[in-house]
């Protein structure tokens, strides 16, 4: 990984296959953003070396590969439409391009899942991506992730969030 950031492990309390897939998807999107890697190379690398394997002495949880592929390919496909939505939800003066690459990956993956994965409750999506962000950044930055994804969730899942 670039920027000398060590890949993070999924938090133990969220130790499930989809949680591991979300973490891997964010790492893959980050790598694509920083290194300019293509999606097919990313799928090959993550599925053969990362998902459920040991990397640099850390054991990674088995991830739901289909979920991982859906999130990564969905973000790549919809990024031109998702980025302006994220920009609108960010504080004025802090466009998405000024946000750290790992946080861009978290926000893009979370936004994609909020729009397209209606099988997962919106509050669960927001919580899961806040947990993923926590593996990489400080608490104040996870608060920003929570606020942005909550705002986007209210756009895509207004009925779900109106119920309280």
Please explain how this structure is put together.
- This protein has 164 residues and is mostly helical.
- It contains 7 helices and 2 strands, in the order ααββααααα.
- It has a two-stranded antiparallel sheet with strand order 1-2.
- α1 crosses α3 and α3 packs across α4.
- The N terminus is likely disordered.
Structure summary:
The protein is mainly α. Helices cover 66% and strands 2% of the residues.
Give the helix level as a range of percent. Answer: 55-70%
Contiguous helical run count: 7
Percent of residues in beta strands? under 5%
Q: What is the rounded distance between the termini?
A: 39 Å
Structural class: mainly alpha
Note the run of SSEs as H and E. Answer: HHEEHHHHH
Task: Choose one word for the global shape.
Answer: globular
Strand order of the largest sheet: 1-2
User: For the report, how would you describe the main beta sheet?
Assistant: 2 strands, antiparallel
- Contiguous runs where pLDDT drops below 50 for at least 5 residues: 1-15
Rg computed from alpha carbons, rounded to a whole number of angstroms: 15 Å
Mean pLDDT: 83
Can you count the beta strands? 2
Name some characteristics of this structure.
disordered N terminus; mainly alpha; globular; 164 residues; single chain
Please render the helix and strand layout as text.
Blueprint: H1 17-35, H2 39-50, E1 54-55, E2 58-59, H3 65-89, H4 101-116, H5 122-134, H6 139-156, H7 158-162
Antiparallel strand pairs: 1-2
Helix pairs in contact: 1-2, 1-3, 1-4, 3-4, 4-5, 4-6, 5-6
